[in-house]
Amino acid sequence: MSGISYRLRHLTRYHYSSPALQSQNLGCLVPRSFPGQDLTEFSLSISPEPDWRMDWRDLYGNERCSFSFSSAHEQLEVLLEAKLLRSPLPELQDEVAWDEFRLPGGPLWRLEDVTAREFVHASPHLPLAKSKTWSADALFEPGRPIVELLDALTAEIHEEFSYDPDATETFTPLEEVYEKRAGVCQDFAHIAITELRRHGVPAGYVSGYLETLPPEGQEKLRGADASHAWFAVYVPGRGWHHWDPTNNCRVGSQHLISAWGRDYADVAPLKGVLIGGGEAALKVEVDVEREESPSIEAAP
Amino acid sequence: MIAHSEELRRYQDHLPGYDEALSPEGGLQPEWRGLLEEVLPRSPEERRGWSDLLSRELRQDGLTFALGGEERLMGRGDRIDPLPWILSAQEWKGIEAGLEQRARLLEAVSRDLNGEQTLIKRGILPAELIYGDPSYLRPCVGLPTNMARQLFMMAVDLARGPDGRMWVLEDRTQAPSGAGYALESRTLLGRLFPELLSRLHVRRLSGYFRGLRESMLELFEGRRLEPRVVMLSPGPYSATYFEHAYLATYLGYTLVQGDDLLVRDGALFLKTLEGLEPVDIVIRRVDAPFCDPLELRRDSFLGVPGLLGAMRNGRVACLNHPGSGVMENRGLQPFLPRIAKELLGEDLNLPSAATWWCGQPTERSHVLEHLDSLVLKPVQRHHGEDTQFGWLLSEKERKELRARIEANPQGWVGQENIGFSTVPLLSEGQLEPRRSVLRCFASANSGSYRVMPGGLGRSAPVKGSPRVSMRQGGIYKDVWVLGSEEEASRHDSLWLNTGRRGHNADSIQGVFTSRSAEQLFWVGRYAERVAQQCSLFRILLRVRGGQEEEPRLMLPMLELLERSSGLWHVDEEEKPESSEDRLNRVLHGEGLAGSLKQNLQMLLSAAYAVRDIWSQDSWRLLIGMEEGGTRCCDESLSDVELLQAVDALLEKGAAFLGLNLAGMTRESGWVMLMMGRYLERGLGLCELGTVLAGIEEESSEEEQALLDVLLLFTENQITYRRHYRTTPRRVPVMELLYVSEVNPRSLIFQFRELSELMLKLPEPPIGSLDDLRLNLNQQRARWLENGWRRDTERTRFLELIDGSRSGLELSSLRLSEVYFRHSSSHQRERF
After folding, report:
1. Coil vs helix vs strand at B618
2. How confident is the model at residue A292 (pLDDT cuts 50, 70, 90)?
3. Between chains, do B131 and A171 touch, taking CB under 8 Å as contact?
4. Among A131, B141, B572, B758, which one is least packed by beta carbons within 10 Å?
5. What is the pLDDT of residues B138-154, one digit of tens each?
């Protein structure tokens, strides 16, 4: 079978400053399968052993895990180990202009594509208000091919926004990201999605991983990789196509896909509501290891 | 034509269109004859009396009592009209069948949209209409209902057009309200016209509610054989809280708020004083987006984290299904006839008012061209925009509205102006036609849906206006469906037969939620505190009025009043100088914690938060206390009037406590209420002790007078005279007030009662008060031996008082820790 085989390890550990008395948790960690990615082996282990656990699949086909604790615990550790076989995603073969399928009214839409139309609406994290400080409006020239538009959009975001993990947090309002012109992969994906949806182009949020290489001459450190996020655009009749604004590139076989949804809130890797727990110190380790041939150098 | 046609002629002259009672030819509609023959001969004064009676009863029952909430179905300023809306048996048959079909249809649509979405995939419904709706909740798609229906209860607003046909204006599927108000309206009108109701064969409502209870159990598909039901309310600040409490009481279900519930091991539990009790069915009166902060709105404190997970796990049914809110989207209306054909293979027999969704280009143009004749509505309720009547807008307003619609066409519908028929209503005792809308209710049964034979009418508060919304006080009407003699005489008791399983398995009997327990504890404390304050006021007013001989009593009594109100230790600078001002401050210090006014408000809030447990009489006494408190704070009252007002308030308070003492079952709730009382009374005695120990001149006249007044305050004057047959002296008084085991008003007695009550709690938590009792008894021995020796006994006594006070405060704290823990268990989100 053609493709690249990866081993993925994703460890999340919370250490509570005082015991968490009870908690309800929802994970979105097990990578989904789809044409282009086979999940060949996986285990999702939770420690301490939760009092209840249920694995299920959400509306978008993502693998979810609900679990809860009803007695005091001082830390929570969730470890995903998976083996993935990744093959290239299909590329757009023809020159489709973005406004041929802009909503409402674009002529390319057929009934078969109808469920993708939900990705043009506002979602919990993305109100779709036009930012006062920045917009990509100038890129949306009539008749411009979508591939060219997306290349330009990712290049523009990569150029205009700086990568700064200290600039934002998980729920920093998007307008603040626009103002600061800085953020992380999640923010850049949100910016791209907002600009696209505002122009009637359906766009979704994709969470996943990217294989990184150590600086030349050094060993790759354990746990040095990170989870990643980007966006995908739906072209009627031609499916979803992924772009990575953080690294200013089209998504290739080095991107492993975990889940997709309307925005981060739909696919948060691990969230919980708990009683007690004090301050929660978070530690995350991600390792993406390829079983053959080298990959590109990129930042998450 | 019946007599008094003069009034009818005048009525007819004012008719703007179709009227419910008068036929277009001017004759009385036959179904209205019986009522109007009863009403027309009565004088306007007598009719006004009906209206007054209804308003009073409404207020006393608490329907118009609301702590807050912006939109409410019923609140202050609202009223129930004495005249019902009457529908003939024949017409009702059509409406009933139409509503039954509509409920089936909406159920089918709800299943589709929260499942396979074939309506969207086949292009029958535009994707944008649903996907753009904030009530379309993704986590609820594919979520099992664990109930044979997604829509268990629904409501429909109907209006009659100029052609005499009934049209559907809107559907309510999220958490339909109004059924409780319909029940209350009928109860009240039943007091006005008992004989008429039976003579006209008006169909009863109880069968509907009994059926609802039975079907709830029959349709449950979860695991337990005897499912248990709770009603989940957003709480006393919600606009429809009264109805939640009213229905929960009527149906016999436990009324709960989000933090009363807990998900554990994928199942749902109720936190009670006795521990966790499993819950199987939740009647959801919290809007779905707020019902699970883990999967839905993360900022909600009204829901239960993990509720959706427990549903997915097959352990809990939630009514209505959290995904059912999307059915309220007004843009669905124009598509329903086709959907009825597709999903049911039926023609829709109760049509919607013609509605155009502006998300479609042709429809949008139609709406924009006819802005001046249409009713314009946002597709979702509660999302910022209001319904607009195109013809009432100014040119400028119309232009602005057009711009808003053009900016967000998917967010708007235009609806044909049905006009709404008028219904006779009593205004200042005179018949007057008012445009009205009819809300009807349906609930699932094993075959399909049953429709409540009646409903809730809502009339325009302003003559000639089409607006029946309730912003500035609405007018509600009971709805009388006339039936056969047989139909009307069938009296279905809610309780006679409770379904296939024999007993009331569905209600969680005899348990108190931790939250209710805490509220009752505070009801006990505040009721006692108010009573103490009132007694002190009464004495102070008498002293001030010279009825008591010693004006010098004023200062120590003021100190006592301020101490027991928690206002003694405030900044000296903030304390008013004159006795007059000090008294007034405690009486009606606006927003001042500890003032009588504030304490009454706290009492009412705590009591309202457990509205479902009070009998009607208890609640009326509470409302009476609120009114009494307002009167006491009226600054224009003379001293004599004020004294009367305080007396009246005291009586109401005593009656409230007495009624509960006599009538409440001796369960955890009662234990909590009484513990609150004893604790508060004990603390009051501690404050009194401090004042007592501070009196300087022993054996003086002043001391005697003060002791006398203190006996009066503690209601011990008679007891003292009977026991000691002397003028008040310190040692016997102190013995009576602090260490007498037989005096129910002594401190030691409060300790004893508290200790006994604690033993009744599921897990006695609170150490014991025995040490304190022992100390008091030793004190008693010393007093008997040595008398009151100021140098030694005073310090010892103060220490004793301080110890007692800390003991009581500690008990209160421990009680909170062990039993009211939910309130401190703040849930936090972790990402």
Report:
1. helix
2. low
3. no
4. B572
5. 999 999 999 999 999 99
Q: What is the pLDDT of residue B73?
A: 42
**Interface touch B828/A273, C-beta < 8 Å:** yes
Tally Cβ neighbours within 10 Å of residue B612: 20
Cα dist from B624 to B61, B406, B604, B627, whole Å: 11, 53, 11, 5
CB contact under 8 A, B142 and A271: no
Q: Residue ranges per domain, chain B?
A: 59-333+419-489, 354-415, 515-664, 667-822
A interface mutation test: which of B118, B122, B131, B826 has the most A CBs within 10 A?
B131
Provide the domain count of chain A.
Answer: 2
Q: Residue A290 pairs with which residues in a beta bridge?
A: A6
Name B262's bridge partners. Answer: B269
Query: Edge-to-edge, what's the strand order for the sheet holding B261-264?
Result: B261-264, B267-272, B275-279
Place of tokens 């929960």: B248
Identify all chain A residues contacting B359, using CB atoms and an 8 Å cutoff. 104
Q: Do B306 and A21 touch (CB under 8 A)?
A: no
Question: What is residue A132's predicted lDDT score, i.e. its pLDDT?
Answer: 92
Say if A297 falls within a structural domain. no
Q: Tell me, yes or no, whether A298 lies in a domain.
A: no
**Do A280 and A225 share a structural domain?**
no
| A153 and A249 co-located in one domain | yes
Q: Would you call B313 and A280 a contact, using CB atoms and an 8 Å cutoff? A: no
The domain of A136 spans: 98-264
Taking CA–CA distances from A13, the nearest residue in chain B reads B831
3-state helix, strand, coil in chain A (%, to 5): 20, 40, 40
Kindly report the nearest CA distance between residue A73 and chain B, in angstroms: 15
Residue B703: C-alpha distances to residues A202, B532, B562, B699 (Å): 86, 21, 20, 6
Domain CATH for A16: 2.60.40.2250
For residues B628 and B533, the answer to whether their CB atoms sit within 8 Å is: no
Q: Both tokens of residue A270?
A: 């691990």
- Rg (alpha carbons) of chain B, rounded to whole number: 31
Residue A58 domain flag:
yes
Q: Answer yes or no: do A229 and A117 share one domain.
A: yes
Whether complex ipTM tops 0.90: yes
Identify residue A123 by its one-letter amino acid code: S
**Domain formed by B354-415, architecture:** 2-Layer Sandwich (3.30)
In one-letter notation, the amino acid at residue B625 is M
SS (H, E, C) B479-493: EEEECCHHHHHCCCC
Distance CA B380, CA B170 (A): 11
pTM equals 0.87
Retrieve residue B426's tokens: 């009593």
Q: What is the pLDDT of residues B509-532, one digit of tens each?
A: 557 788 888 889 999 999 999 999
Q: Are residues A149 and A235 in the same domain?
A: yes
Pair (A271, A260) in one structural domain: no
With CA atoms as reference, the chain B residue closest to A21 would be B825
CA–CA min distance A59, chain B (Å): 7
Contact A207, A267 (CB under 8 A): yes
Q: Which residue has the tokens 């003032």?
A: B595
The conformation of residue B341, written as its DSSP 8-state character, comes to I
Count CA atoms within 13 Å of residue A76 on its CB side.
33
Residue to substitute from B298, B828, B829, interface A, most A β-carbons within 10 A: B828
B127 to chain A: which residues are within 8 Å by CB?
114-115, 117-118
Mean of the per-residue pLDDT values of chain B: 86
A273 and B305 in contact by Cβ < 8 A?
Answer: yes
Identity of the residue in A24, A104, A111 whose CB atom sits nearest the CB atom of B306: A24
Chain A partners within 8 Å of B263 (Cβ): 24, 68
Residue A75 contacts B, CB cutoff 8 Å: no
Collect all residues of chain A within an 8 Å Cβ-Cβ radius of residue B120.
Answer: 114-115
Could B138 and A59 be called an inter-chain contact, meaning their C-beta atoms sit closer than 8 Å?
yes
A119 secondary structure, DSSP code = G
Tokens of B107: 């159920």
